[in-house]
Design brief:
By secondary structure, the protein is α/β, with parallel strands linked by helices. It contains 14 helices and 23 strands. The strands form five sheets. It has a seven-stranded mixed β-sheet. It has a six-stranded mixed β-sheet with strand order 18-19-23-20-21-22, sandwiched between helices. Strand 1, helix 1 and strand 2 form a beta-alpha-beta unit. Belongs to the MurCDEF family. Mpl subfamily.
Length: about 450
């Protein structure tokens, strides 16, 4: 059976392609923007990629077209499919029908941390010899690809709240039917499809309604928006990560290193008695990654992995690509790549990096690229989210509907704005000096900024 995927180079649709290939389907696909790492991964799997949305890509008529959620009416291939009555479905629906309906699904949701927590959880299950299936919205470095079918009942999936398809405006995650559900956090994002936080909470509550009574819902106890959503009705046991033993019971981390690279994990019971589960010592940094780790440990325990084993696994965890990934060091200048594209994620990433580098300078480079960011929904929070950076560089593309040079940064911070990637590279390279850390933040390819900067520094 021949499947053709529209929007195949998105991390989710690329994962669908990999799983379909493992199931024995003939898979092809097309996308408007083909760039690594997903394009490289798909080519290695032997999946035929075509550039652009040209109807002639469908002349070898497939049995089924899987339509990515970036496709809309007016797209030439969408119109071709509809006019010729070619069978079509969404990625989440295809995944449910062909994979998830028979599996123990562990879904990781939330505005931030989905990819990293999903990767941690998958690695823990793999370390415990449970051979899980998974679909992660990134490239996990403990594995050779972002998705696989797996050889056990367990399937880990990054559960995105974005809408499913042009013909199905529900969040993707309502198709997943998890038994184990992580909700990391909940903030307003995706302003192109949601009007406010309440809209997002409504979609999350649809998901909560689907978790069975023999399942488990996990979240940080400090997340008020998650608590509000659970209060709308919850029919499943819940478990929490907690900041201290006063908020028992729950999972708690005690930092042994300021940057979060080492910490003790404890579980507090109803009486406030905390039992040490073990110590995590890893290459990751940041309090946000500690929070992600607690969720992954708790979710794995629900699937039968002792916390001690999960903690051992995290000691060998390699973070997902583009999550504070060190892309290179030139002349003692470290260049990191990160996917942060929301003020909260930007602030947490900088907090972790600041704890790691101490008083050394941080040069923060930002491409406002998400629909929410380009519209300026969070622009009033941007300056405060970048407060831990010493130098700030922002790309003012034509799609950004607000003026970056009007942001209210502190007097101690220097910031520069450029309208072209190459000019921004020049500005950063000119300011960087030995001992500095450059943090590049974008949820896209950023015009090859990372490699261009490393070449300029060399």
């Amino acid at each position: 059976m021949h499947l053709h995927i529209l929007g195949i180079c998105g991390t989710f649709m690329g994962g669908i392609a990999a799983i379909a290939k493992q199931l024995g389907f003939r898979v092809s696909g097309c996308d408007a923007n083909v760039y690594p790492p997903m394009s490289t991964q798909l080519e290695q799997l032997g999946i035929e990629l075509k550039q652009g949305y040209l109807p002639e890509h469908l002349q070898d008529e497939p049995d089924l077209v899987i339509v990515g959620n970036a496709m809309s009416r007016g797209n030439p291939m969408v119109e071709y499919v509809l006019d010729r009555n070619i069978p079509y479905t969404s990625g989440p629906q295809w995944l449910l029908d062909n994979v998830l309906k028979d599996r123990w699904v562990l879904a990781v949701s939330g505005t931030h941390g989905k990819t990293t927590t999903s990767s941690m959880l998958t690695w823990i299950l793999e370390y415990a010899h449970m051979s899980p299936g998974y679909l992660i919205g990134g490239v996990p470095q403990n594995f050779s690809s972002s998705a696989r079918l797996g050889e056990s009942p367990f399937f880990v999936i990054e559960a995105d709240e974005y809408d499913t398809a042009f013909f199905d405006k529900r969040s993707k995650f309502v198709h997943y039917r998890p038994r184990t559900l992580v909700i990391n956090n909940m903030e307003f994002d995706h302003a192109d499809i949601f009007n406010n936080l309440s809209d997002i909470q409504r979609q999350f509550h649809h998901l909560i309604r689907m978790v069975p009574s023999n399942g488990l819902i996990l979240s940080p106890q400090s997340e008020s928006a998650v608590a509000e959503t659970l209060a709308m009705g919850c029919w499943t046991p819940t478990e929490y990560s907690i900041k201290d033993s006063k908020h028992k019971p729950g999972w708690h981390a005690e930092k042994l290193a300021a940057d979060g690279s080492e910490f003790i994990v404890r579980f507090y019971d109803e009486q406030g008695q905390g039992e040490e589960q073990g110590r995590v010592k890893w290459d990751l940094i940041g309090d946000f990654n500690i929070d992600n780790a607690l969720m992954a440990i708790a979710a794995a325990r629900h699937a039968g992995v002792p916390a001690k084993v999960a903690i051992e696994a995290l000691g060998e965890f390699i973070n997902t690509k583009r999550r504070l990934e060190l892309r290179g060091t030139v002349n003692d200048i470290r260049v990191y790549d990160d996917f942060a594209h929301h003020p909260t994620a930007i602030a947490k990433t900088l907090d972790g990096l600041r704890a790691h580098v101490g008083n050394q300078r941080i040069l923060a480079v930002l491409e406002p690229r998400s629909n929410t960011m380009k519209r300026g929904i969070h622009k009033d929070l941007l300056a405060s989210s970048l407060i831990k950076a010493d130098e700030i560089f922002i790309l003012q593309s034509e799609q950004v509907l607000w003026a970056a040079n009007e942001l209210a940064f502190s007097e101690q911070q220097n910031y520069r704005v450029a309208t072209e990637v190459d000019r921004l590279v020049e500005l950063v390279a000119k300011q960087a000096r030995p001992g500095d850390t450059v943090l590049i933040m974008s949820n896209g390819g950023f015009g090859g900024f990372h490699d261009k900067l490393l070449q300029a520094l060399a």
